[in-house]
Specification:
This protein is α+β, with helices and mostly antiparallel strands and 339 residues long. It has one domain: paralog of FGE (formylglycine-generating enzyme). It is built from 8 helices and 7 strands; from the N terminus they run H-H-H-H-H-E-E-H-E-H-H-E-E-E-E. It is globular and about 50 Å long.
Length: 339
């Protein structure tokens, strides 16, 4: 990455926080999909120390696929430089120094209920962009749920619980609403099915997307295409044809979190009992939950993707299982518990 690239503009959410303005510039993402550039950018933007980076590199070294997609077949619709130009043309900026101070980390948003409390009351924050949580960087994909949890821990954060992601998307964090009573005495798949059905029935009446009450094509990073010959998700045939994070300035929630719909689907933790809640300190965690949608949804809506919808137990496992699922359109973002 050149020094000139390093001082290219990144953006802030001026529309959501009146008076916000850029205070410093993050390095522009490189168009190269190699891990070296990605990890250098991760360290520089988030000011990670050597120990943190050693843990991050260890996770990457343990996988032959984790990264920003198979470069042999991936064809990103736009470049990081085009992303920067698009956001600049919208008159936006993604710097939020007050949120950086509150969350103790860059590019995070506090999770709270704006109807009854202020951001300062938040007890957790969530990444505003998909990992590596850098505006105009391509999301990290081909990552197992276990690796996502390990990477979040390496950078001083944790994997989000499902209700936290849902609150970030809906613009209002609500108390946990897991029906643990329906999981008792059941095997995992049956427990998830029972909890999911009850939850989705209860929330269907207020379904909404991060940007509003109805699905809208063209608002989020959902107009890309699958690679020719991509069938069930093969490494050699399926490109991670994602957009740079934050490419669509309107694709954010009322809490200022981007790309919850479109771009990459995201690993989250679904607890089956209270002892598995990441938000309450669990490191054993529950089972895998896929949140959001991915980069072809304007062309093919493969499943529901409203904010509080919970998915079936697709490719289900415990989050921390070594064989947890990965694929070309599945990434993650992290949360952080505040002191």
């Amino acid at each position: 990455m050149t020094r000139e690239d390093g001082f290219a503009c990144v953006l802030a959410l001026a529309l959501l926080v009146p008076g916000s303005r850029p205070e410093s510039a993050a390095p522009a993402p490189s168009a190269d999909t190699g891990d070296s550039d990605l990890l250098q950018q991760l360290q520089q933007v988030h000011d990670l120390d050597a120990a943190s980076m050693a843990r991050v590199r260890e996770v990457f070294a343990g996988s032959s696929r984790i990264g920003q997609g198979n470069p042999a077949v991936t064809r990103h619709p736009t470049t990081p430089q085009e992303c920067q130009a698009r956001i600049a043309a919208a008159g936006a900026s993604y710097e939020q120094p007050q949120w950086d101070r509150l969350c103790g980390a860059r590019y995070m948003a506090p999770l709270f209920d704006p109807a009854r409390e202020k951001a300062e009351a938040a007890t957790a924050c969530i990444d505003r962009f998909e990992f590596p949580n850098v505006p105009c960087a391509y999301p990290v994909v081909w990552v197992k749920a276990r690796e996502a949890a390990q990477l979040c821990e390496a950078v001083g954060k944790r994997l989000c619980d499902a209700h936290e992601w849902e609150g970030a998307c809906a613009g209002k964090l609500e108390p946990p609403d897991y029906r643990f009573d329906l999981a008792r005495g059941r095997e995992r798949g049956s427990a998830v099915a029972a909890m999911k059905a009850a939850h989705n029935r209860a929330r269907a009446a207020d379904k909404a997307w991060s940007y509003g009450p109805a699905y809208r094509a063209g608002v989020c990073a959902a107009s890309s295409v699958k690679s020719p010959g991509c069938g069930g998700g093969e490494w050699g045939n399926c490109g991670s044809n994602t957009f740079p994070a934050g490419s669509f300035p309107e694709c954010h929630s009322a809490l200022g979190v981007f790309d919850l719909n479109g771009n990459a689907a995201e690993h989250m933790n679904l607890p089956l009992d209270e002892s598995q809640m990441a938000s309450r300190g669990s490191r054993t965690l529950g089972v895998t939950e896929m949140k959001g949608s991915w980069f072809i949804f304007d062309r093919y809506r493969a499943h529901e993707d409203w904010c509080r919808w919970r998915a079936p137990f697709w490719h289900g496992s415990r989050v921390m299982d070594a064989g947890s699922h990965d694929n070309y359109h599945l990434g993650f973002r992290c949360c952080k518990t505040l002191p």
